[in-house]
Design a protein that fits this description.
Strand order of the largest sheet: 1-2-3-4-5
Number of strands: 5
Shape: globular
Number of domains: 1
Mean pLDDT: 90
Low-confidence stretches: none
CATH superfamily: Gcn5-related N-acetyltransferase (GNAT)
CATH architecture: 3-Layer(aba) Sandwich
Order of helices and strands: EHHEEEHEH
Number of helices: 4
Strand content: 15-25%
Distance between the termini: 45 Å
CATH class: Alpha Beta
Structural class: alpha+beta
């Protein structure tokens, strides 16, 4: 498995093969995260991912099948992705910037192979290279597999995010 930055020509594949399935899985976990039916979700996602790929303070890394182990045409070559952003802390706090892991997704057929761990480690490396002190992320309370992965890598609950309908 190779972990490397997303290439501009791969944005379509990222959206189709990874982001849309990720968004659908999150919608299955919680209706609050369901995709809008009246929007051109794919076009919006392409625009947003293209902006992210070009942003100075954001990096998207992808896991790609190793050379010689390319999947057949029925399988995707992108096996997972992580998006990480460098976020400065407000100057009133005695802490440095944070590498915020915005999204992490591993294709179902690649789960259990350490892909998520490798992607997170690459995001951490990118954050360290930029001078970030910590890595932070949010995870859905009902996403037990993701929580287990994060906790196994040393992530601890620092805050609880609560919301309610109005």
């Amino acid at each position: 498995m190779q972990i490397r930055p997303l290439r501009a020509e791969e944005v379509d594949a990222l959206v189709d093969d990874l982001w849309l399935p990720f968004a659908e899985e999150m919608g299955d976990i919680d209706d609050h995260d369901a995709l809008a039916e009246d929007a051109d979700v794919r076009a919006e996602a392409l625009d947003y991912r293209t902006e992210q790929a070009e942003a100075e303070n954001t990096r998207m890394f992808v896991a790609v099948a190793a050379a010689g182990a390319e999947p057949d045409s029925a399988e995707r070559s992108l096996r997972g992705y992580v998006t990480v952003a460098d976020a400065d802390s407000p100057p009133v706090f005695a802490r440095g910037s944070v590498a915020k892991v915005k999204e992490l997704y591993v294709a179902p057929e690649a789960r259990g192979e350490g892909v998520g761990t490798e992607l997170l480690e690459r995001a951490h490396e990118w954050g360290r290279d930029r001078g970030c002190e910590r890595a932070a992320l949010s995870v859905h309370a009902d996403n037990d597999a993701a929580r287990s992965c994060y906790e196994s890598m040393g992530y601890e609950t620092r805050y609880l995010k609560l919301d309610r309908p109005l």
